[in-house]
């Protein structure tokens, strides 16, 4: 069984990757209960989503028990980055640690039925730097406090992200007509990004 600790720490052969975590920005995240979640016991799978470095989608499924989780909790992960796909997805798929594995069925059963031979040739269960950083962001806030609530997990900075998207649309419209106004809006966008980057 794959556990959250597999995505929280890199094993020895990938230990040098911990230095790269400072290059990863988790811009916002949200959470939702999966279909098997039991409201009475507050037990079941929760789907956490994030965007890393403004381009990679991260999915992390964690099994909550009695409104709580820890590093030993069962977990599944997925990331849209090439590192995850080529190094970790095959191993996680075959160890029941890949979030939403049906989208990989053809790839790992027909196209590439054997494990990676060059990248992650030791079949280490882990995640890419985006997943590890996301686990580090979640861990100190919600781990072991017995107070895991979805409304707390859903990041209030999501509203700032929506504001940034709206400003970006205005910048595109302004460039041809009013370049100085477009530059002012871009400075405002940069200041908003500074507020939401971890």
What does it look like?
There is one protein chain. This protein is of the alpha+beta class. The chain is 41% helix and 16% strand. A four-stranded antiparallel sheet has the order 1-2-3-4. Helix 6 runs antiparallel to helix 7. The longest helix is centred in the C-terminal third of the chain and has 20 residues. About 3% of the residues have low confidence.
Provide the β-strand percentage band.
Answer: 15-25%
- Oligomeric state: single chain
Uncertain residue segments: 143-147
Distance between the terminal alpha carbons, to the nearest Å?
A: 30 Å
Tell me, briefly, the overall form: globular
The average pLDDT score comes to 79
Properties at a glance:
198 residues, alpha+beta, 2 domains, four-stranded antiparallel beta sheet, 7 helices
What is the fold's blueprint, element by element?
Elements: H1 4-8, E1 26-33, E2 44-52, E3 56-64, E4 75-79, H2 82-94, H3 105-111, H4 129-142, H5 150-153, H6 158-177, H7 179-196
Antiparallel strand pairs: 1-2, 2-3, 3-4
Please sum up the structure shown.
This protein is of the alpha+beta class and about 200 residues long.
